Amino acid sequence: MTTSAEQSGETRDAVKVTAGMVASLVGALAAVYFVSQFLRNSIGVIAPDLERELGIGPESLGLLSSVFFFGFALIQIPLGVLIDRYGPKEVMLGSLLLASIGCVVFAMSETMTGLVLARVLMGLGCSSFFMGPLTIFARWFARNRFSTLVGVQLGLGSLGTLFATAPLAFGADTIGWRSSFVVVAVATLAIGLVAAIIVRNDPPGTQKPPAKPASLGSAVAGLKDVLAVPGVYRLLAMHFVSYSTFATVAGLWGGPYLADIYGHDLQQRGFYLFLLAAGQIAGLFIWGPLDRLFGGPKKPAIVGALMAIGMLLFLALSGPLPAWALGPALAVFGFSCAFTPLVTSHGRLLFPAELVGRGITFLNIGTMGGVFLQQFFTGFIVAAIAGDAASRPFAAYSSVFLCVAGALGLALVFYLRAPDGSLDAD
């Protein structure tokens, strides 16, 4: 794989970049992202247990899951400044410590307030686990490899989503969900140690030109340049709902849906959510490279969005599925939601080189803010339809699926007229 330093003709006589070095870098960054994917989706499978143990309703459940993304989005602009000033590796290491603290607080909390605080800490802690690797990839690799690397990053890191399904269900059933999060805290610190040893901000031999670190004020002021880029609002619309389509189902309502409609216990919920997550991970490896086949990310992203809308309508309108169809339907839905690397790559292509960092950060605020609003809002939808019913009716979950499909469809209408973007070999 060609690095960006090699593309620009830089030499590195002292250290040669090898395939093993690249694999270690990508693997370590994916392990960091694993933590984020696990924590953001960890409410879904244990949601019925949290409701029962803490006596909370769907509105509180929606808040508990969504505040992770609120904390994540809140810190994005300061995060860009911190990455520019201290380096992506250093910021990620500090974030890993904060995320592990959030896990411990979550495990020890006995009240809704404590759990919400813990989720905010987790979101703040995980806030650099995507932007940090993207920054490093931009420094190491040519831009026509970026979408593929994002797909690999998301695919490997999304194993964390898998672990938030059946493995978390097994842990919660065996040692309890509280002890399971203590184990996650220890594992997060271990991943931080590995990253500290392996990850480098720049390819070996790269000489960075001296630059004055940006301030928070200049970063905020610089957003006006991002907002002036043609098509940025159309792309923001897709960022706002593309990932939240998956996260609202897999990370929040999938577990309650399986419990209320199919009567599945903790282990069974874990199994079916595992299939959903496995479908998404398989899709990430397939959707990501399609931009090179189609000459850009927009066309395959449109296909993915249409597939996701179709699956949501199927789940909403078909009624409870027979046992043989439920697993495949969830897996196909997960696969269809995996077009997100294409949307991220489109953002990478939309901005000129001097705005790439600020532009991707701005769009990522939309991504995480979208999950926060959609999860929070759907909590009220479920509450309005189900009320205080011990077992919620299918109509409550059908309404969630229709709401998510409608939001994605509306965003797609805006996205259709976004600039295509092109992959120039550089």
Report the mean per-residue pLDDT as an integer.
Answer: 86
The N- to C-terminal Cα distance equals 13 Å
Q: Uncertain segments of ≥5 residues (pLDDT<50)? A: 6-14
**N-to-C series of helices and strands:** HHHHHHHHHHHHHHHHHHHHH
Tell me the Rg in angstroms.
21 Å
Q: By CATH's scheme, which homologous superfamily applies? A: MFS general substrate transporter like domains
Helix content: over 70%
Note the main sheet: none
Helices, by number, come to 21
* Integer count of domains: 1
User: What is the strand tally?
Assistant: 0
Q: Under the CATH scheme, which architecture would be assigned?
A: Up-down Bundle
In brief:
The protein is built from 21 helices and no strands. The protein has 426 residues and is mainly α. It has one domain (17-415): Growth Hormone, Chain: A.
